[in-house]
């Protein structure tokens, strides 16, 4: 990782509110050019972590290093909590105020208007907008000044399905241009296909920090054999491992990893069992879902 790839680096950051450990020993550095999904259940610590990154609250322990922008733009920009707009001013005036504050030029405003799809409401007073449109305007504002890091806390909350699709396009575009985009959500599926990376928070701790696609492990085969004492299961497990098949004995039989060549692995398991005179009673292909992986990770943390 080159230094410039990480606009912010958190090193063993913790935050306590009285007896509540909201964030616990988090070391994390979202990458430029990537959309990172910051996911966790209600109360997992997502908003607290984002507020720490922006400097809105100070960590109890650990350090946050925000690197100066390499392009002379803003180091970071964030949309956290309810959109803060000047209700008496038109959307255009709101954007103009932000343009001046961030040093953006008119072309950047036009682009933000386009990306957030708010061209139709520029003349409306912000106070008359629906919640979803307020959120879109706030998002357009957050894009001004070419931030190196863009933090969006639960940005889909007030958005209709069409606006959610537009949001995905917007964050993808911004990330492709080199910004590190972090989007928090309590729904893992919401950013599937858009996010490159995933940070899974639970109880203030990061349970997973890595590529989105690797979070869900490879498919497996569930194998069960006749006989109740487990001896045949152990024998078949050993034979499969001799054949370099990634097999492990579980409570209900054997799990064999079946990534790209699932059919050929299933065939090998079948023929190995036949040759060893082991009677198979089940050979099932299991493809894990995002939700299962999420619940397994959280259950692991609870146990
Ligand atoms: N200002 C505060 N004072 C006291 N406790 C707080 C404060 N802010 C957050 N907490 C607590 O810290 C924990 C993490 O809260 P946080 O809002 O960061 O979670 P979250 O993942 O953003 O949740 P949600 O998805 O519900 O928004 C919770 O137990 C919450 O009650």
TrEMBL record:
Domain ABC transporter, chain residue ranges per copy: 8-228
Domain of life (superkingdom): Bacteria
Name of this chain's protein: ABC transporter ATP-binding protein
Keyword list, A-Z: ATP-binding, Nucleotide-binding, Transport
UniProt family annotation: Belongs to the ABC transporter superfamily.
One annotated GO molecular function: ATP binding
PANTHER family: ABC TRANSPORTER, ATP-BINDING PROTEIN (PTHR43335)
Record InterPro entries: AAA+_ATPase (IPR003593), ABC_transporter-like_ATP-bd (IPR003439), P-loop_NTPase (IPR027417)
């Amino acid at each position: 990782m080159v230094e410039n790839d990480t606009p912010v680096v958190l090193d063993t950051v913790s935050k306590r509110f009285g007896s509540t450990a909201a964030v616990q020993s988090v070391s994390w550095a979202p990458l430029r050019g990537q959309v990172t999904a910051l996911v966790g259940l209600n109360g997992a610590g997502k908003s607290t972590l984002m507020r720490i990154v922006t400097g809105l609250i100070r960590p109890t322990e650990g350090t946050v290093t925000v690197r100066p922008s390499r392009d002379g733009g803003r180091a970071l920009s964030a949309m956290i909590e309810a959109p803060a707009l000047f209700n008496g001013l038109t959307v255009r005036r709101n954007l103009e105020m932000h343009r001046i504050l961030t040093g953006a030029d008119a072309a950047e405003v036009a682009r933000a208007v386009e990306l957030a799809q708010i061209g139709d409401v520029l003349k409306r007073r912000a106070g008359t907008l629906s919640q979803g449109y307020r959120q879109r305007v706030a998002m357009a504002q957050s894009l001004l000044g070419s931030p190196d890091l863009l933090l969006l806390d639960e940005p889909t909350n007030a958005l209709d399905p069409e606006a959610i699709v537009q949001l995905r396009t917007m964050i993808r575009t911004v990330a492709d241009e080199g910004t590190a985009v972090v989007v928090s959500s309590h729904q893992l599926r919401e950013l599937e296909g858009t996010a490159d990376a995933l940070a899974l928070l639970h109880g203030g701790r990061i349970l997973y920090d890595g590529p989105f696609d690797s979070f869900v492990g490879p498919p497996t085969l569930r194998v069960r054999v006749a006989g109740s004492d487990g001896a045949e299961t152990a024998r078949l497990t050993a034979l499969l491992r001799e054949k370099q098949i990634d097999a492990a004995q579980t409570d209900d039989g054997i799990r064999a990893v079946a990534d790209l060549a699932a059919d050929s692995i299933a065939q090998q398991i079948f023929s190995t069992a036949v040759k060893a005179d082991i009677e198979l009673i089940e050979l099932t292909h299991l493809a894990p879902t995002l939700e299962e992986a999420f619940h397994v990770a959280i259950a692991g943390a609870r146990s």
